[in-house]
Amino acid sequence: MGSFFRNKLLLLILTGFIAGIGLTLLSHKGIEATSTNGFCEVCHVHPHVFNSWKRSTHYDTPSGIKVDCVECHLPPKGEGYLTEKIKLGAKDIYGFLFKDSAEFNWEARRTVEVAQHFTYQESCVKCHENLFPRTLTKEGQEAHLYYTQKEDELLCLNCHIDVGHYDPNRKHDKNVGFGGQASASQERFTQPAQVTSLEGYTETIPGTAVSFKMIALPGGSFRMGSPENEPFRKEDEGPAREVTVSPFFMAETEVTWDEFLAFYAATAAEGRSTDTEGARALNDSVQTRSLEGVDAITGPTPPYGQPDQNWGMGSRPAITMSYYAAETYCQWLSQVTGKNYRLPTEAEWEFAARGGTQTPYFFEGEPRDFMKKGFFGRLFGKENDLISQYIIYEANSMSRTQTPDKVEANPFGLKNMLGNAAEYCADWYAPDAYSLLTDGATNPRGPATGQEHVIRGGTFKSDPTWVRSAARDHTQTEAWLKTDPQMPKSKWWLSDCNHVSFRVVCDFDEKTGKK
Amino acid sequence: MSNNNFSRRKFITGAAAVGAAGVVGFNPLVSCSAGGGQKSGSLITGQPFKKLDELFIPPLLDKAPDGQPLKAGVVGCGGRGTGAALNWLGAGPNVTITALGDVFQDRIDGCKAKIKADYNVEVAEENCFVGFDAFQKVIDSGVDVVLLCTPPVFRAAHFEAAVKASKHVFMEKPVAVDPAGVRSVLASAKMADSQGLKVVCGTQRHHQRDYVEVYKQVATGAIGDIISANAYWNQNKLWHRNPQADWSEMECMIRDWVNWTWLSGDHIVEQHVHNLDVINWFTGLYPTSAVGFGSRQRRVTGDQFDNFSVDFVYDNGMHMHSMCRQINGCENNVSEYIRGTKGYTNCQNKIYDLAGNEIYSFPYSLDESGSPKKSVDVNPYDQEHIDLVTCIREDKPINEAEATAMSCMVAIMGRVSAYTGKKVTLEEMMNSDLKLGPDTFIMGDVGYMKNAVIPVAGEAANE
After folding, report:
1. What is the 3-state secondary structure of A84-105?
2. Which of A211, B270, B322, B388 is the most exposed place for a label (fewest CB within 10 A)?
3. pLDDT at residue number B296
4. In this structure, are residues B46 and B74 in contact, taking their beta carbons and an 8 Å threshold?
């Protein structure tokens, strides 16, 4: 019960502080005094914040104007300046007094998602009134024109996240050098794995030093979807159906950056620096693409920005590639290994994720056991951290994907099915897909057509309800390309989605030992 | 990670997934803005009609007021460029022309002689520039205004250069032949606005007093809510130039430019844009998709069609039918027609109620015999320059570039649909990288003509 009194005391102290600050703020002098860079610096102890500001384009401007902290980190005066100042100020004081700044995830605060809550769009456009200065580049014109058409959806920060605090890794620009540092001198495999039976194997990608583990899955029948009484179930998870999947192989982990970069290095479009160069057929813009009959596989063009979000590559799941890129990867992998690699169907994915279980997770528990506890929850509830052994989700991810060694496998030996990054499936998404299935269906493939594809498995951003085995989601083609300024937008890389990866499956067929 | 925003509608539309082109998210441009950057409201969506003082109407004076001398340079000195030069010189006192640019010397000579003969204006030899880079030299020669009158494929780059040099602009329609050009003009238009530059386009019906009067009536509710529209430009064959032995391939094409899609945009863009623009102007809306067809039956040179028929569809369900043809010996008609819930109009000078009774007729002034004249007192080609000079001298806002660029985009959408046989959306066009013509221009043999292909829509049937 000690913590109860401590909390009350904290509340009292905090209230006192806010009241005191509020009084001070009432005087104009006080407002001025608490709006200087020096005053900000008193509390904002993380030292890089001032150094990076001083190296940014908002400190060293062509006209010699220096832009101060509050000019971006508070709204303009008269547009909620005081209200926001009091709110942010109270938060800062609380953080300063009661939290250890060394434990903050500063990196996450520099993402657009978080930074927009303390960097004000109104303030950007107050100074940057003219979005079409004569000095604007061609690319800038296209991008700002796009912005003027979608002002409700876009922030200046979407493209200009690095302007207030310099960060060489966050430039909004073409990343032509991406992937160039892939394993150069390591020993390379000459042969793909030979598979003669339904047993796990290690695939070796010829011509590269990259290998990865494939798990043999026996196939069988299971109940796809969640029962109506499963807590936090969404409508699209039902009605649950009894379905059967044939035996297949599935990768132990999500496709790693090492694996994806092998593809990128082998196929990346020669000499092209953007998607938009080169002649295009007149009707290209109104044609649907076709993947059939491709001999030489054309690979991705260089990405815009940093696909790995500067979280590191190696065995971390490859992310930000489009569905098209994931499909093309599978084609390429099939070609170089002589097997049939592809994206899993939704049924295969769920069969694999469940690992023989029919419960919310493949381990014991349900979402409420793992949710963030409120005040009373912390007082009386029991702590349960079982989920962290198996799933990378919002509470343990540090706002980024993690390497597979951080978690334990499910009963089939597969890692990160339910968390870390979501995974593309081959099926088109439909909210009512399961109602169109009949019990006893074998190898269902989802709706015949659609607009968006299924993605399955939660992500490093998900709460415990979204990392259940049955949770379904779908791609968002338009939203995930929102800030790609290229014309047309990249078909290989997503500018606004950093939480989706994919996992390959391999057919168990005559090429892999099926008699 | 939420399904909340999932649009069920997306599934129903079936397999034609077209990249990022969705069905929503294009609103800011769907309702068009009139010249001067003012938004006009929808006449169809039940919003109140505009009041007269909310409409953008150019000054429409008989002559521009006197003021500081204004020097203009002409870029593109062919028939239209020379015509525009004369219209400019007649716009008011203290205006002159001090520079000429074209890719052909004979065009410069012709223009120079004509303005000397008609207005006694002498352009110095050192201010006459020949070549693909002549536009920049004209812009840099110390002029205040540039008149951009080359074939349309060059317009976007010329407009951008003029705006970056802070020049007021008159530019002919069309202002672009492809989506990349349209977007460039849209961006340059905003750049012009930010500098307070005046931009008038050769969509001269906006400066034709009878059209303007009918527009005022329609926009303020004279025919009720608009429910359908038709646009026509059916005329005889235009003109062509056969290749000459001493012309390079590029010269052959440029001298024959109204027959080459990459130069003109095809006649739906080059000519019919006038009528499409009137519908956009009167309705205050842009169509969001098009399905069209067309063909080439009697055109002599080039790679264009000579007829188009396009069904344009608006988000509110309204349709506009558009027809254009350049073939001799057929029924001809150049006009517009808009029908509303209370009546209909030819857009030019008459408004009728639903029973066919004339409820408005533009009052043309009378000729010597006392009968009404057939046309307005100040012809619109002069009027647009009078309006430009007036707006410059009185610092009134006028910038028609965005509206004209969007009308061109509508026409391009129709063309692409007819060429491909597919439904094309405005959103696709706004995001398309389609760009016609070479990136750099040389006056020589470019290997284009012998490979030119006239588009054929759809797929061959099985024999």
Report:
1. HHHHHHHHHHHHHHHCCHHHCC
2. A211
3. 97
4. no
Chain B nearest CA to A53, separation (Å): 29
Distance CA B30, CA B32 (A): 6
Nearest to A282 among B8, B26, B419 (CB): B419
Q: Do B14 and A431 touch (CB under 8 A)?
A: no
CB-CB neighbors (< 8 A) of A145 in chain B: 183, 186-187, 190
What pTM was estimated for this model as a whole? 0.77
Q: Please state the rounded mean pLDDT for residues A264-276.
A: 58
pLDDT tens column, A175-216: 777 776 555 567 889 999 999 999 999 999 998 999 999 999
Residue A136 three-state SS = coil
B360 beta partners:
B351
Give the tens place of pLDDT for each residue, A432-476: 999 999 999 999 999 999 999 999 999 999 999 999 999 999 999
Residues in chain A: 515
- Facing residues of B184 across strands? none
Q: How far is B34 from chain A (nearest CA, A)?
A: 17
Q: Do B420 and A461 touch (CB under 8 A)?
A: no
ipTM entry: 0.77
The C-alpha atoms of residue A327 and residue A341 are separated, in whole angstroms, by: 10
To 10 degrees, what angle do helices A81-98 and A2-26 make?
140
Residue B46 C-alpha from the chain's centroid: 29
- In this predicted structure, the answer to whether residue A278 has a pLDDT above a threshold of 70 is no
Is there a contact between B420 and A283 if contact means CB atoms under 8 Å apart?
Answer: yes
B433 chain-A contacts, CB cut-off 8 A? 276, 280, 285, 487-488
pLDDT given at position A28: 72
Write down the pLDDT at residue A222: 96
What is the distance between the alpha carbons of residues A427 and A343, in angstroms, rounded to a whole number? 9
Q: What is the pLDDT of residue B23?
A: 31
Average confidence (pLDDT) per 10 residues, chain B, 463 residues: 35 30 37 40 56 94 96 97 98 98 97 97 97 98 98 98 97 97 96 96 98 96 95 97 95 97 97 98 96 97 97 95 98 97 97 97 95 95 98 97 98 97 94 87 90 91 85
**Tokens at residue B153, please?**
């494929």
What number is the average pLDDT over the span A341-345? 97
| Higher-confidence position of A141 and B343 | B343
CA distance A29 to A55: 30
Say if the Cβ atoms of B164 and A134 lie within 8 Å: yes
Using alpha carbons only, give the angle A311, A317, A321 rounded to the nearest 5 degrees. 90
The pLDDT, as a whole number, for residue A381 is 54
- Out of B10, B29, B431, the one facing A488 most closely (by C-beta) is B431
Interchain CB distance below 8 Å, A236 and B3? yes
Please give the full DSSP string across A446-495, using - where no structure is assigned.
Answer: --S--SSEEEES--TT--GGGGSTT-EEE--TTGGGTT--SSSPPSSB-S
